[in-house]
Amino acid sequence: MTDELPPTPEPSIFERMRTRLTPDGVPSDDRGRMRMVVDSLILHLHPTKIPDRTLRWTYTWGLGGLAAVLMMVLALTGVVLLNNYTPAAPQAYLDILELNSNVWFGELMRNLHHWSANLLIIVAVLHLIRVFITGAYRPPRELNWLLGMLMLILVLASNFTGYLLPWDQLAYWAITVGTSIISYLPIIGNWLTRLILGGPEVGPNTLLNFYSMHIALIPLAIFGIMSYHFWRVRKDGGLSIPKSLDESESGAEIKLERLTTIPNLVQKELIYAIAWVAALLIFAMLVPAPLESIANPDLSPNPAKAPWYFMGLQEMLLHFHPLVGAILIPGLVILGIFLLPFFDLNPRNVGVYFRSRRGRALTLLAAGIALIATPAWVLLDEYLLDWTGWLPSWPSLISNGLIPLLVITIPLILLDDWVRKSFQADTEERVLFIATFIFTAFIILTITGIFFRGPGMALYLPWNMPTH
Amino acid sequence: MPDPTPSTSRRDFLKLTWAFFGAAAAVETAGIFITYLQPRLAEGEFGSIINAGLVDDFPPNSVTHLTNGRFYIVRLADGGFLSIYHRCTHLGCTVPWDETQQKFICPCHSSEFDRQGLVTNPPAPRPLDLFKVSIVDGSVMVDTAVPIQRQSYETAQVIYP
Ligand code: HEM
Ligand code: FES
User: What pTM did the predictor assign?
Assistant: First the structure.
């Protein structure tokens, strides 16, 4: 035996694998951490340093990030659901029953997918409101506003196409009513509806069409646009810088401190994502996604309601000819939202919640007026106004469409004029006022549709709702 | 120095040609996809000519639902036949016949229609659609290929045996 060498401690196999993955660990100095952000494919979504203010919870509420987390949960649960689903009628319905009763964690996957999809709509809309109220859509961020709107429309389309897939009564009739709205488009309406349905009414071909849109076309588009959206945030110089009303009024220069992305931003994002996923899991374990009896084309349930996020639209249909209530008004509103960055240019108050003190007061005022005027109008139209009865020989497009349209637009124009004259509101504050009014009215219509409409779409108090 | 105009206009010409063929290719591609996606006509029950039964199966003043054909056979008091598509002209719900109130009442947004399918309560914008009826050898034949849209009721819509 020759001289024994002292035994060198050999790294364990796990240690060796770890050092291959992150050769240097997470560096302990700022410089090294910044390098890591630049070098990492995933982390370089972020800049190396960010202004301390943009980290405030109360500015973004983390809503955009949460939307992205939900998209990932949806992609993951969606892909595994495919393993237990056949896009054929009536097999689709039987597959869902099987999933709920005989597949390990099948119901959990379905519930997670269902609730994340619904939450995503709420979160995307809240994110839009935050961006709107802080004026963050102003130049140079116009393009990102447009991309965001595109994503919102795709998210709604994704929800709507997914709604049909369980092939139960809820699905069948919501999609029948929803797609019939399209047939009111002038000239191409009937042709387009047939194309989307793959036939004269909702049937097996519709299921296949919706399936291919839901699992391929729409998610690909969303993830594509999402990457662009994130890249634009960086290209536009990061987030808009939050300011308080006082700071904005005094116009003083704001001193920004820049913090390193690791750990300041990454840590927050991680905790936020984990907390939300945990909350979703608990919710999905406790609250099952709805499933009714199998689709029956001969029997419309009473009431037959659209998906909840289209309930505001459905409520409009009770008050207007479909061409006005479901196409003209929503079309104009959506066009208005798209064009917002191009007619409200004042870049002064970007990053300030409600833009100015007057803006804040007017927002409250608009919400208050809409809160009273909308239910009043619903009740009035339900019980007193009867344009088609009063003007029986007029085409219903005029008596039930243009006349009620005038009845609601004229007061809105007068209100705008009043705000401009009595409050000396400038363009930006007037836009804030009108938008708040329309948005609040839409929310109230949605709530009316969800909670106050019963059999025959008559009005009921929620606690007196007949069960059949 | 040579005049630059000719070469500029040649470039313009080439650009225009590119734009033209590019647009043509885009239109063709869109056309191919849209044609590909056209509904496939199924030779099923609904959409073909359906034998609803014998004339005498339907007493005068009756309304009968034939669910597999998606239509009602309405026999008027004077013995005339109408075949009414059961799809609401508002937003497509299936309209049941209410025997006690003697009218069609849509469960979705409460449109009402009388025996001939005329709107008696909106929001439905037009009467219920019809299918073409013919009487062949004492049987009532209904052609469900194309729903016939109408704005009013005319006696010509009624078929007599
Ligand atoms: C699936 C939907 C969406 C996702 C995943 C998403 C994601 C994000 C993320 C992560 C940010 C960073 C800041 C933040 O969290 O607030 C952001 C910012 C932004 N988003 Fe979205 N977004 C979505 C929809 C929308 C919509 C509907 C709009 C508006 C029409 C919009 C407009 C913007 C704008 C203008 C910014 C820059 C804000 C600023 O600089 O302060 N996004 N988005
Ligand atoms: S679908 Fe029949 S009233 Fe709306």
Answer: 0.88
